[in-house]
Amino acid sequence: MSAPLTPAPSATATATAASPPALALVHVDKRFPGVHALKDVSIEIRPGEVVGLVGENGAGKSTLMKILSGVYQPDSGDILLDGRKTRFVSASDAMSQGIGMVFQEQSLLTNLTVGENIYLGNEKQFTRFGIVDWRALYAAASRQLAKVQIDADPRTRADDLDFAARQMVELAKALTLEENAPGHLVILLDEPTSVLERAEIDILFARVRALRARASFIFVSHRLDEVLELSDRIYVMKDGAVVAELAAAEADVTQLHHLMVGRSLQAEYYREPLQQSYRDEVVLELDGLRLGGAYRDISFKLHAGEILGIAGVVGSGREELTRTLAGFAPHDGGRLLAHGHEVRLRTPAEAVDVGVGYVPRERRVEGLVLFLPVAANITLADLGGLTRAGLIDTREERRLAEDWVKRLKVRTPGINTLCLNLSGGNQQKVVLAKWLNAQSRILILDHPTRGLDVGAKEEVYELIRAVTAEGVAVILTSDTLEETIGLSHTVLVMRDGAITHRTDASPGHKPKQVDLIGHMV
Amino acid sequence: MPAARRRWRIASWAPLIVLVLLCGIITLINPNFLTFGNLVRISQAAMIPLVLGMGATFIILMGSIDLSVEGGLTLSAVILSMLVINGANENAFGLFGVLIVLLVGAGVGFTNGVIHVRLKIPSFMVTLGMWFVGVGAANALLGGMAIRINDPMIRGLAIERFLGFPWGVWVALGCLLVALVIQNYTRLGRYIYALGGGEELAALSGIPVGRVRILAFTLAGVFYAVGGVLAAAQLGLGNAQIGTGRLFTTITAVVVGGTALSGGQGSVLQTLVGVLIVVVLANGMVLMGVPPSVQIGVQGLMIIAAVALSIDRKRMRIVK
Amino acid sequence: RRAFAADKPTVVNSIRSLSNPYHATWNKGGAAFAKSVGADYVTLVTEGNSEKGIADIKAILAKTGGNCVINVDPNDSPDARPIVEAAKAAGAYVVTQWNKPADLHPWDFDPNYVAHISFSGVPYGKAMAETLIKKIGGKGGIVALGGIESNVPAIERKKGLEEALAANPDVKLLDYQVANWSATEALEKTNAWLTQFGDQINAIWAANDDMALAAVEALRADGRAGKVAVTGIDGIQLAVEAIQKGELAGTVAWDPYWQGGMGLSIGYQAKTGGFDPSKEPKDHREFYGKGVIITADNANAFYEENIASEPKMDWNDIWGRVTGQIQY
Amino acid sequence: MNTMLDTLRSDGVRQWLPLVTLVILVILVGTFQPAFLDVNTLLQLASDTAVLFILATGVTFVIMLGGIDLSIQSMASLSSVVVALTLARYGYAAFVFAFGLGVLAGLLSGIAHVRLRIPSFIATLAMGGVLYSAALVTSRERSITLGESERAYLGWITGTLFGIPNVVIIALIVLAIAHVLQSRTPFGRYSAAIGAGEPAAYASGVKVDRQKIFAFVLSASCAALAGIVLVGRLASGSPTLASELLLPSIAAVVVGGTSITGGVGSIWRTLVGALIISVVRIGMTFLGVNIFAQNIVFGVVLVAAVAITIDRSKIPIVK
Ligand SMILES: Nc1ncnc2c1ncn2[C@@H]1O[C@H](COP(=O)(O)OP(=O)(O)OP(=O)(O)O)[C@@H](O)[C@H]1O
Ligand SMILES: Nc1ncnc2c1ncn2[C@@H]1O[C@H](COP(=O)(O)OP(=O)(O)OP(=O)(O)O)[C@@H](O)[C@H]1O
Ligand SMILES: [Mg+2]
Ligand SMILES: [Mg+2]
């Protein structure tokens, strides 16, 4: 891609003179096999400051954060802590020097309790003669949980918490530094908000602001408005280099977008003009559908070419509903008709058979086989169609895969690259390619843009528009209401397992967010 | 949330329920089963698998596997037989000899761990190699013969009793206690679970992953050495076949107890239950008069039944 | 062929493993013989794996170009046929012991298949059972530990036991369990019996010494050492010592030292022209060797002659222990 | 050590490492004992590897999926017993019968594993016990030697074709079929997908259970075939005929570089692995390695071979 746009403004120099930065990277370089992840990056974080970090998928944000937190070591360049050169040989080393991190991927161990997770790697303070005093540890963990206003027993196993709660626990974990490390802290937040609802985001932001007396923060998010809201100063990264540094007060979303992607934000972000009215053909019909305590009495019709957005908070039953339609949790009451035939989807295989494709929220677990090549992932759901006399037609497979890679503009070195090595947005495109290749008529999109940068999001939106234009029906649950409204023809709101509201959302009739929120809580 | 935790509890009790059921059935068929004498014998039969199971549990909790059980045990038993008062040489190191044997066990485990971690070779293969090496070395030391142990202290483990149970059983219970403390009250124990739950995540939390692995293998090696001491005490001799057949019993016991081979789930207490299930099953088979040639088959079916009854299907969505 | 006819043939023992005293002693006998004629000596072990055993033998045949003598205790009786066939094809001479199919005969592979040596399990299994029966005064309960079920010696020894019992109706066989020649398993089975039969057990018959010694240990741990009579078979050193101490009532010594050396000697003399196998009578081709029954009466003497000192063997006395042709 | 490994990191080189290891071992033994490189010796080596390879091939299918099959040696022994018992009466149908029994046993292991959700380690260990008991009972606990007339049916196993032993040809046919199954059919692809990421495969509509059951069927039927070949080689059947072949088979799979946790591997690797095991074993005999040192050398060489052959870049975490 293109070379860095502008050198970092010299404003930095003057500021440094005033107070030494709490933490700084000076001319840091980092390479992975085949990837130059960080190119001569210099940034600094001043005491009490919240620094925003934005950039496309793969721009190098997480790599930078991991260098700051001791997970990776730079190939060259220096790390300055309070103006002194230092090295972090490991994550625990960085922690002991006051650097804490909330990782982008969910990083709680689900087989341990919340309390154990919070102090994992940090039990020493509760250890006497090698024996851990669990009572003290859990009491301390309770105090940490209270900080992030999570009302959970620290003895709960982490996998009994939902994603949002886990994210808050991770924050609580990073905040243990407050007690453990002397002096000024730097807390690195890598996309902490991507799984959070607005209310929880508010808690998080309040917490960050309250802590500024003791800590500086780096905040990474793909939601540019949030970055503008929370940060004092913003670094923009592109292709491994810092291409701009600006004060948040003087920046706006359009400008950030331009700096990140190299082109302007399209006025029509959700491609609304491309939204066509859907067809009459009903592909999926739910009639009084019910599943245990999860949801009940769900009825709607999904038409070819329609995007049906489902809004609702955690626990509203929308997650279970999408899992039912994808074949993971068969309903136990009511009727479900696919293309006019009554079905009960007991396994994803049965769902695939009736034309359903599922784009899961946990892309790296359920979406892709990370250790298989791109081509194998694309054809995985429809190998039958590639099989001649029992054998896979590998030539045809290659052709198809290359075709999809081209059509969806998947950025990959080749179709034989392991999916593991693709960026989030490109991984998501491969998931979509898989279902398009299987000729799915019904796509269940579960948070399809989670973790994607604005540019990648736009491409995914465009893709969704394109497939619906060809008659594919979509059921969408999304991270933000804005996205749900922007994309959908119809929006359903669920609360406590039932539909509380349904509204038309075709262009020109888009409902307001506040109206929907009223039905959600 | 509380509901979820209760479900977990019940699932981990399931093996115990299976054990009680099994004991009930055997007692119905042969009331001798519940005599004190038989309980002592079951405890004698269980003491070695229990000690070995403690070591293997830690390894399996990490998601690894240890096939060097027999190698470690055999080498330890043989070296012990050469160090304490015996029928082949003039050595009489006594307790000090036991200590040396424990160090040998630790050395075997440490070697496993270091090769596994530093050369990044799957534990399956490293420990398979160590199995051959351990038994081979024991064999080379003995030159094929067997050495009788005459040390009264060692023999006492199998013969002398305290509160009706042989000392070896108390040693095994001591090992259980040590294992429980390590599992529940030390950082090593916690880190072992963490590695089993997700090694990359554990590393991100600053856990020295490689060191934990090496330590766990070393610890397991020590347990196998204790198993070797008990086995030598029980048979009154050291020979190169003393470990034969113990590996699969050990792993079966661990899994029957409900510890997942994929790591992260289970505990040494569950292994105690698993060991008892396996030992009671073997004991009961004889008591119930099952013909020898079908015993192993019946045992297989019973183990399938036991595991089917006691596995927590909710937690283990993926079973490999 | 690479090897010159003038070269001394390599002498090879193929046995189950070197981790049991029986075969370890066998191996010593083989080494002693090799030394006596100045031949190269090779030991092969099957580790209980028939495929490995056969493959190793074929490797030796290839390596020596057939200029070798093999004395083999096949892992399982079926193994004997491919071993003999391979030896014949390579021109090597072979002696088998213990295991071979009933319809495989040395005289069908003249001259390469020199002889098969076995020890009838039946009379010795019976003798041990009778030792026990005498010891317990002609009546009482007895339990028995058997070897690997498909194994010929295990089957024969069990048959001897049954014959003895048939002749003594007052002695009851409480249970027969298979412990696969293994001490560990024998210990477990004995433990279970102690529960099941308690004081009904007066004697334990074991198909080999390892199992018998394990039974003794189980009794000792249960506080019954000396109260129950036990016999083994094989005559390993520890068993003889146990008889001396009065812990074991009897065993049978096959003299593995003799087996390891004499098997080679027979083959070696045939190979080097000492005699022509095809001219020997059938009872020199398929014969029972002589076992020595050891009880408290002769244990000390046996110990002195065979264990305390290196046994003295006349390796040229090749037919000295023939006790008759094998009957199938 | 590490830098040397680094230079070998590129995919093209890495792929050939197992084969290179094998060739180096062969040359090594051959240097000291030229008789080892004799065509006949090498053919002998190939025939001696056939049974091991067939067993290992079967278990490769299961290992690719992330499971394990510990019942193969009992299955092979049972198969030998069944053939030996029925050959006189039914002729060639005896082989079909034994093979069918393999299919059935695999079906049962597979179903016990997926339906009852029992780890394959335990399910197949237990199944192995059941099969062993079945072999003991049907053979009445002894080995069954085949008579002259029955041995006539074994020509297809014991004979040679253009100087190549038939067992080698049988092994090559197994290799060809297994290779195609593994690399060219949906089943092979699904196995890799399940081994590398079961949740994603499941969510993509792969019938995970069915693939797993099929893998166990393949494994057990390969074991049955191995048993049949053993009957040919030993002219008899016995409940312990295939004893001690389990671990070498699994070791062959792993030594070839297939990941024991599944997802990565191939039949080619298993072939090379089986040959490495044979070469090391027979090579020690050829080189005259002290009998007491053999087990130690064997263990060390196995570990060293794996250190070279496994492809760490495709295994997320080495466990
Ligand atoms: N461990 C690694 N090995 C090889 N390449 C890596 C590794 N980690 C990151 N990369 C590569 O380095 C580049 C930067 O990745 P990084 O994760 O820092 O991006 P990011 O800005 O955090 O993206 P996102 O917004 O998707 O989180 C990418 O091309 C990525 O593929
Ligand atoms: N929620 C889940 N997430 C991931 N994997 C799952 C989940 N539920 C089940 N599995 C896995 O999928 C397998 C179950 O597959 P499934 O029952 O769908 O096969 P199937 O299509 O029914 O096969 P068959 O047609 O032969 O019955 C199990 O092996 C289990 O490990
Ligand atoms: Mg990132
Ligand atoms: Mg199903």
Number of helices of chain D: 14
Q: Which small molecules are bound?
A: adenosine-5'-triphosphate, magnesium ion
Major beta-sheet overview of chain D: 2 strands, antiparallel
Note the run of SSEs of chain D as H and E: HHHHHHEHHEEHHHEHHH
Average pLDDT confidence of chain D is 90
Mean pLDDT over the full residue set of chain B: 89
CATH fold title of chain D: ABC transporter involved in vitamin B12 uptake, BtuC
Give a count of the beta strands of chain B, DSSP E runs of length 2 or more: 4
Bulk shape of chain D: globular
Strand percent estimate of chain B? under 5%
Percent helix of chain B, as a range, is over 70%
| Poorly predicted segments of chain D | 1-9
The CATH class of chain D: Mainly Alpha
Strand content of chain D: under 5%
Output the helix-strand order of chain B. HHHHHEHEEHHHHEHHH
Largest sheet of chain B: 2 strands, antiparallel
The number of helical elements of chain B comes to 13
List the helices and strands and how they pair.
The complex is a heterotetramer of chains A (521), B (320), C (328) and D (319).
Chain A: H1 11-18, E1 23-32, E2 35-45, E3 50-55, H2 61-68, E4 76-81, E5 84-86, H3 91-96, E6 99-102, H4 114-118, E7 127-128, E8 131-132, H5 134-147, H6 163-175, H7 177-180, E9 185-190, H8 198-210, E10 215-220, H9 224-230, E11 233-238, E12 241-247, H10 253-261, E13 282-291, E14 295-303, E15 307-311, H11 318-326, E16 333-338, E17 341-342, H12 348-353, E18 356-359, H13 363-367, H14 374-379, E19 387-388, E20 391-392, H15 394-407, H16 424-437, E21 442-446, H17 454-469, E22 473-477, H18 481-487, E23 490-495, E24 498-504, H19 513-520
Parallel strand pairs in A: 3-10, 3-11, 6-9, 9-10, 15-22, 15-23, 18-21, 21-22
Antiparallel strand pairs in A: 1-2, 1-4, 4-5, 7-8, 11-12, 13-14, 13-16, 16-17, 19-20, 23-24
Helix pairs in contact in A: 5-6, 16-17
Chain C: E1 10-15, H1 21-37, E2 41-45, H2 50-64, E3 68-72, H3 80-90, E4 93-97, E5 113-118, H4 121-135, E6 140-146, H5 152-167, E7 171-178, H6 183-197, E8 201-206, H7 209-221, E9 229-231, H8 237-244, E10 250-253, H9 256-271, E11 286-288, E12 292-295, H10 299-308
Parallel strand pairs in C: 1-2, 1-3, 3-4, 4-5, 5-11, 6-7, 6-8, 8-9
Antiparallel strand pairs in C: 10-12
Chain D: H1 2-7, H2 11-32, H3 39-64, H4 72-90, H5 93-115, H6 120-138, E1 144-145, H7 148-151, H8 155-158, E2 160-161, E3 164-165, H9 166-184, H10 186-203, H11 208-234, E4 236-237, H12 246-255, H13 267-287, H14 291-309
Antiparallel strand pairs in D: 1-4, 2-3
The structure holds adenosine-5'-triphosphate (2 copies) and magnesium ion (MG) (2 copies).
